[in-house]
Every structure is written in structure tokens, then in C-alpha cells.
Specification:
2 domains
Length: 395
């Protein structure tokens, strides 16, 4: 089948982070014999167009001059809108540009997939005709949908325009269905599916663990945090907890909160090392060098929370013991005391205590990591690909 994939984020290079799981989704479809046309927002930078087998990528221009295209990529749309007034300029123009681009190509497609409901699911629903349309909804767009004045009507339009709806957590599914009236809710519920986005199998690190730790001057229990440096990730709590224990913390990722987080670490006298965005072999080596992984995500005052972060699954696949907060879809993959330690969001004493348990109990670490690897194996793209194929074909 020839599939059109509409998205608001897609990797701009082989090592780019934004939209990496959308690329993984597209590759999973290619592995099932499909070809995929991707329509994604044009980046502000005029870089070479990346190429992946079986995938045709088309950037969709939406503002001129190009330097004004600040709505997408970077810290993500919600944080871009919060921090840069220019980001608001592109919302309506991109929606119209995507509609024009999709309408011009729909005749080539046998089915459609959309990532992020606003505007991609609405656009795909408008142009699909009788074709199958799988709408993939994530935490940011479900949250945005709950804040809109006409949210019930928009949610109904999204549901009516999709033959299947895929959510990264049960919380997101239930939140979306809660926007619908009882009768249409019952109909939409039969077309809802829940699955985290997948991960790629991890290759072996570039060197033995002992060597990786020695080159990084790590001789104590070391914590790893990996993700965008934005408020929802709770990296400040991870810094405070690791500082309280006196253990090194590796912070991998970029984002608008970095300066504030570095200032916090200096104030606390914490051994916190900011590594910037880390991908590929460097990321695998970090997983191998660290002793534990922390996801301290929180629920923001606005009510926004996580879906199911793929970094969590990657750390589990790498064999790191996990401490994670019980937010969003995290409890869907982490079971307390079985494959990780689950704590309340914002509970700093609980975070410190969980890290201390991992530091002091090698048997606990071994037991948790064995189960975590088994869980992560369920969510590789190769494991998920047949299910995604079935959704596209039989939705």
C-alpha cells in the first residue's frame, strides 16, 4: 500500500530528535511492505533533505520569509508557543498549507496516517474520502484539545474522520473519549487502540562498561536523565534528589530550561554534567555507563502531563534500573517493584529514597532490570509493526 503520513514533526537529519518516533512509525510500515509519503512542516533552516528507504519526505512551507517558521521543532509546539511570540504566526498558515499539500496528493494514497490531531488528524479526515485513516494522538495535542472552546465538536470531527484512533496511553484515550457525547463516545471507543510509540533495538556500546565509566570519571553510583529540558520533565527534581544523595547526575538533552537547571546545580553544589542532545552510539554508551535512569516528569499546573516517553523504554531495554513518576502513561509500562520503582510526581523525598534503594541494593537492581528488558522487548518497532500494519489495512 501507498500511505500518506501527515505530521507536525519529523527528523531533519539522521541524528535529529524531534519526531524520531514518527520516523520509527514510518519505518515500521515500510517493513510491512508499504511505501510512505511524509508531509511535515518545513524547518526554518535550509538543510539537505534527509532520505530513508521506502519513505518520501516533503517539507510543507507555511511562512515567508522562511526564518519566521518557528512554530515547530525545537522544544516542541507547546513550549515554542509559550516562549516565542513568532511561533503563533504559523498555526493557521501551516494548517492551510498542509490541507493544500495533502489534497494534491491524496489520489496517490491507499490509506492515511496522522500524527498529532491538531491539525493533522483534521486534515487527513477532510481529504481521505473512503480510505482508511489511522489518527495517532499524543499528550500535547490531547491536552490542547481539552482547552479549546469548541473541543467537543472538534473531537467529534477527529473521531468521525478516522477509521482508527491510536493513543500512547489509556489516560489519553479516556480523556479524548470524555470530550464526546455518550452515543458517539460508544462508537468511537470501538475504534480506539492504545500503545506507546516504539523503540529501535539497541546495539552494543562502543566499549566495555568499565572503560566507558573510566573515560567519564565515574567512580560512584551514577544517575542518568534523558529528555527535553522543559518543565514537564521535572529535571530540577532529579538534580535535587541526586544532589541530596551526593551522586553524579548525567543530563542528556537540550531545551529552554538548560540555563536555569545549570544554575540550580551550581547553587546546590551538585555533580551534574550537562551533555546536550545525545543520539546514536553516544546515547548507547551513556546507558551502559550509568547505574540508574530517572524520569521525574510531573503534571503541570495547566493539567498537561506525559504520554509514554520512549526514553523510558530505551532505558529499560538497555538494562538500567528505573525510577519514574506515576504520570500519564508511565504506569502502563512500569509496574512498581516488578520492573522499576514508581513514585508520586513531585515527591522529592520519595525520589531520593528510591534512588538510595537502587544505590544500596544490587540484588534489587538486577531483578528490576531483568523484568524491564522483557517489558521493553514488547515495544520495539519490529514487535509493533504487525499491529500497525493491521490498523492501516483493516481499520
Amino acid at each position: 500500500m501507498h500511505i500518506g503520513l501527515l505530521t507536525t514533526s519529523f527528523p531533519r537529519s539522521a541524528d535529529d530528535v524531534p519526531g524520531a518516533f514518527v520516523l520509527g512509525f514510518a519505518r515500521a510500515l515500510v517493513s510491512q511492505g508499504h511505501t510512505v509519503d511524509v508531509l511535515a512542516p518545513e524547518p526554518a533552516e535550509d538543510d539537505a533533505l534527509p532520505v530513508w528507504p521506502g519513505i518520501t519526505l516533503q517539507w510543507v512551507p507555511y511562512l515567508r520569509p522562511r526564518a519566521l517558521e518557528q512554530t515547530f521543532y525545537g522544544a516542541g509546539v507547546p513550549d515554542n508557543l509559550r516562549r516565542d511570540p513568532r511561533a503563533w504566526l504559523g498555526l493557521a498558515p501551516f494548517s492551510l498549507a498542509l490541507l493544500r499539500a495533502a489534497a494534491a496528493q491524496t489520489h496517490r494514497w491507499d490509506a492515511l496516517v496522522s500524527h498529532w490531531a491538531l491539525p493533522c488528524a483534521l486534515v487527513a479526515g477532510a481529504v481521505r474520502g473512503a480510505r482508511n485513516h489511522v489518527a495517532v494522538l499524543h499528550s500535547a495535542d490531547v491536552f490542547a484539545l481539552t482547552r479549546l472552546p469548541l473541543r467537543a465538536r472538534i473531537a467529534q470531527r477527529i473521531a468521525d474522520g478516522a477509521t482508527a484512533l491510536l493513543f500512547s496511553s489509556t489516560l489519553l484515550r479516556d480523556t479524548f473519549l470524555g470530550l464526546l457525547a455518550p452515543v458517539p463516545r460508544a462508537g468511537a471507543a470501538t475504534r480506539c487502540h492504545v500503545s506507546p510509540m516504539g523503540i529501535e533495538p539497541l546495539d552494543a556500546p562502543s566499549a566495555p562498561r568499565r572503560t566507558l565509566r573510566r573515560t567519564r570519571a565515574l567512580d560512584a553510583f551514577t544517575v542518568l536523565s534523558l529528555g527535553r529540558l522543559v518543565p514537564i520533565k521535572g529535571t530540577d527534581d532529579t538534580i535535587r534528589a541526586s544532589a541530596a544523595l551526593g551522586c553524579p547526575l548525567l543530563v542528556a538533552g537540550g531545551g529552554p530550561e538548560r540555563d536555569a537547571l545549570e544554575s540550580l546545580a551550581r547553587t546546590l553544589g551538585a555533580d551534574t554534567r550537562f551533555l546536550g542532545i545525545v543520539t546514536g552510539a553516544a546515547k548507547r554508551d551513556l546507558f551502559a555507563a550509568a547505574d540508574a535512569f530517572v524520569l521525574a516528569s510531573r503534571v503541570l499546573s495547566s493539567g498537561r502531563t506525559e504520554g509514554t516517553p520512549t526514553t523510558l523504554l530505551e532505558a529499560m531495554a538497555a538494562g538500567l534500573p528505573i525510577v519514574a513518576t506515576d504520570v500519564g502513561g508511565v504506569a502502563g509500562v512500569v509496574t512498581h517493584e516488578r520492573n522499576g520503582l514508581l513514585i508520586p510526581a513531585g515527591d522529592l523525598p520519595a525520589l531520593s529514597a528510591a534512588l538510595a534503594r537502587l544505590r544500596d541494593d544490587a540484588a534489587l537492581r538486577k531483578r528490576l532490570t531483568r523484568a524491564a528488558r522483557n517489558t521493553a522487548a514488547l515495544y520495539t518497532w519490529s514487535a509493533l509493526a504487525p499491529h500497525l500494519d493491521a490498523l492501516v489495512r483493516d481499520a
